[in-house]
UniProtKB/TrEMBL annotation:
Annotated source species: Saccharopolyspora spinosa
Name assigned to this protein: G3E family GTPase
Gene Ontology terms, MF aspect: hydrolase activity; nucleotide binding
Superkingdom, natural source: Bacteria
Similarity field: Belongs to the SIMIBI class G3E GTPase family. ZNG1 subfamily.
GO CC, one annotated term: cytoplasm
SMART domains listed in its UniProt record: CobW_C
Pfam families reported in the protein's UniProt record: cobW, CobW_C
Domain CobW C-terminal: 231-322
Reactions performed catalytically: GTP + H2O = GDP + phosphate + H(+)
UniProt-listed InterPro entries: CobW-likC_sf, CobW-like_C, CobW/HypB/UreG_nucleotide-bd, P-loop_NTPase, Zinc-reg_GTPase_activator
Signal peptide: none
Transmembrane region(s): none
Amino acid sequence: MVRQPIPVVIVAGFLGAGKTSLLNHLLRNPQGARIGVVVNDFGKINIDALSVAGQVDSTVSLGNGCLCCAVDARGLDDLLAKLARPGSDIDVIVIESSGLADPRGMVRLLLNSANPRLGYGGLVEVVDAAEFDTTRRRHPEIDQHLRFADLVLLNKIDRVDESDQRRLAELVRGLADGKPVLPTDHGRVDPTLLFDREAVRERRDTARQLSFDELLADPVDDCHEHLHAAYESVEFTADSPVDPRALMRFLDDRPAGIYRMKGQVHFGAPGHGQKFTLHTVGDFLRFHRTRWRRDEPRRTQLVVIGSGLDQDRVRSGLTACLGEPDRSDEHSMLDVLKYTRS
């Protein structure tokens, strides 16, 4: 079984957008995960009986096993290595980007990291729906930030009327170039959008093999069922092999609204009959290669998660990827292997 890297999620957004509300929501609703939160300033996080605002390179243990850290940009890489070290027991790391910073520097740091225990978990851009037009006039660079985001939270939606909600959702979706846009209030989003439940379970019980039903199962908790209505998932299962070139074409031109894809792929290409575990966040793509269990059927099972998905297009696009690879094409797996870690 592949041991997944710890996802590192970057939360960005201009001052007052609701980044801290999102972080506090995650800490109050960790869904069984142990979360490492990296912030610029402890003072904005609701930590009882602590007054450590402004301390840099400091770490505070929270009652639920999570960690809260304050760090400047120079120490970020070292801090992530500490949080991801064996024995830290952290399931997901969330970094709050400074309200005026360009988050692409952090994204580049993560994508260039050689630490095998860390994985890119996506760039989440939080925007203030009530102040979006004003923010855009003051900070026109927000258009560029939205284009680079993997997921956009249109926050404080409770402060605008329905017609403005529709206008802003359409505007932001266009600026984000088809990336998923979720309406939220008070930063309340389903935490399992940001990390895999099965990866958390794997770290808690590495001896047990997860079934596909468990991978698809809704979490059993009190985390506001209405949060799930903001996004949707498409499940795809096939016993036929997948044509690697066709799948890579699909991944290069994904339907709008897709935030994450995960699951296992059976290519069946000569010399590449192993199980390939697929993980995508936004444009980020990674395969992990491992062996099938003896009793495990050679089958492709994928979950596509996003907002505003054309579910029929997703399913038909994946169905079109099925088919025996051309056995005379000795380079059919080349593009897949570029993104593969064994």
